Structures are given as C-alpha cells and as structure tokens.
Amino acid sequence: MYLTDNTILITGGTSGIGRALAEEFHRRGNQVIIAGRRQHLLDEITAAHLGMRGIQLDVEDPGAVDSFASQMQEQFPKLNVLINNAGISRTEDFTADAIDFSVTRSIIHTNIIGVLHLTAALLPTLKQQPNSTIITTTSGLAFVPRAAFPTYCASKAFLHSWLQSLRSQLRETSVKVLELAPPYVQTELAGPSQATDPNAMPLANYIAEVMQVLSDLDPSHGEILVKRVKALRWAEKNGDYEQMFADLNGQ
Asked: What is the pTM of this model?
C-alpha cells in the first residue's frame, strides 16, 4: 500500500498499537480518523495532532457500528484504508466452579463480530476507491496460543482464517487485504505491566519495523510480519509447535 496521501480509519486508535499507527500515519501526511470508546482520549490525541479526527465507537454495539459507517461514508467519501485494530484480551479460567461467560462473549463481539460488521459496512466505500487496503490486527498467538487467554487467542486465529478468505474473494477488486500479526509488544493490552515488560518488543521499534515491512510487502501475500513474530507464525511448519506451546505455557 502507499504510505502517504491516504484517508485512514483506525479502530482502537486511542492506545497501544492503534494509537502509535495513527500518529505515524498522521506524521506521513495522511488524513487519519481514530475511533475508540473513550471520548476523553479521542479529544486528547486529536488536540495534539492537527487535522486528525476522532469519533467515538463501541464496536460491540451493532447499531453504533451501522451509524458510524454511515457517518464515515458521508464525511469521508475518499476513505481508502481501514485498520481494524480494536480488540480486547482477558484471561479466562475454565477450570473454575463459576465461569464468567460475559468475558468470553465480550471478546468474541469485540474481536470478531465487530471487525466483520464494520468491514462489511465500509466495503462499498472502499471498493469505490482506485486503491484501498484493509489491515486487520491479529496476533502471533493466533498460531501458538497462550492457554490462559483461550478466547482471545482463538479470536485471532479466526481472523487469520477469515482474512485469507476475504483476500481471495476481493482479489479482483481494488481492495487489498492485509493481516498485521504482532508479537508480544509493550502495550497495555493484557494489563499495565505489559507496557514496561522488558520481554516485550518496544512499541516504537515495532511500529518502525511494521512501516518498513509495509513499504516492501507483496499484497498478494498479505501478512505483515516483523522478525520477532516469525517463530510463532511458522512454528507448526518448522516442527517447533509443541515445544513453543510448552514454553509459552510453562509446561
């Protein structure tokens, strides 16, 4: 994809990878719209970046997604890049006597249904552009899961499979479909301590490498893989899956 002169929507754009991507694409001269649940963060980020727009969105609310998509089509008819980055990660213990299934449901609605719904709603606009791109954030854990995060990891594996099919279906259109599969990165996705964990990849380093990969990527391949995530991505192919799963899960 071109890295400048785009109109880019980034969901989950108020923190972590989404925010960092928004700031980097804005710096490169793109029109950037960020979406998120927390209005005060939308206001804070857009105030610090002249020309960036922020619109509140809860991807778990189907009515809100439909209204948001209509607003995007009306206000940003040249939208040509959708970055589905909104996602949540929670631990779950299915050995417990009482299981809080609301956590499971929330992960599925945010990480899967919200992504599919918004993508479907915005595809008519994206198809109208001469060059469009859909980027969806999955995870290295889509390929080798951490057992403490069963539904999160499964949601990302679902998206990996779905993106392969979507890429095939849209191959004759102007829309390219890319998968962004991060390794363990210094964000607060799994809690505040992750942002300072020395075992996690520094966020700035991750974004810099992603932009380099994007500049060289063959869109027919479609996976944005930094060096640190490749061991997870190719674990099964390389015969390392069982050992890597055991290492990730302390077995």
From this structure: 0.96
